[in-house]
Predict the structure.
Amino acid sequence: MVRRVLIATLSSSQQNLELPRIVDAATGSLVGLLVVAVLLPLHPMRVMRRAASPVFDALAAYLRETEAAIRRREPDRAVRAMDGLRAMGPDVERLREALSGAEEVVTVAPVRWHWRQHYERYAHGIEHLTRAIADSQDLARRSATMVEYGEKVPDHLPDAVGALADAVRQLQREVRADKAHDGTRRHALRAADQAGRAVRAGLQNFAASVATQVRVIASDLMRATGCSVDEANQQTRQVARRGERE
């Protein structure tokens, strides 16, 4: 709010208006700061959860659609899931705006300072959740091509995509309850395991790329829970390789 106040004085045919305009703008900024910081500070987590809810819902739903498209061999269904994921832009933008507003609140409002660490964890998780959305678009596209070409699809592959949807839903529940992310990590690693088992069963070109993309999204979700890049990639890779061997 405060950052967006533009203090600008436009040239005018009347003279001596510059200083009053600057004073008015500064007064408005101070009033806005007072409201945000002291009188009516928003609850940062409530704002972020409300904005994040449609993003979680849509991502989980489109992953389910991709799973069903693979399982039932319906390429058009996978294309619709891809289009739906691409259309999530407005919801993601509203979430980013909510994050920006929450950051201001936890920065300037003393009564909300104790939420700073919660905000930072949430913002970190959302960053990787949005990456998972982009990677899920690629997953749906590759799935549509795989099915359209009639490639062999072992049941482990749609099971892997379903595990990703479970991970997203679990992450939503854990974030809402401010709990540890053990459940999300289990589902994400289960997706990697199923992808590895699908590889072991034998995959052709596009199916192999689908299995790889599952691992990418599993890593995105692991990172959303707070894992480092190296840790998320290492755990995902290890579980997938174990699935290939077992």
In short: Confidence is low (pLDDT under 50) at residues 1-14, 30-41. The chain is about 80% helix and 0% strand. Residues 116-148 form the longest helix (33 residues). The two ends are 55 Å apart (CA to CA).
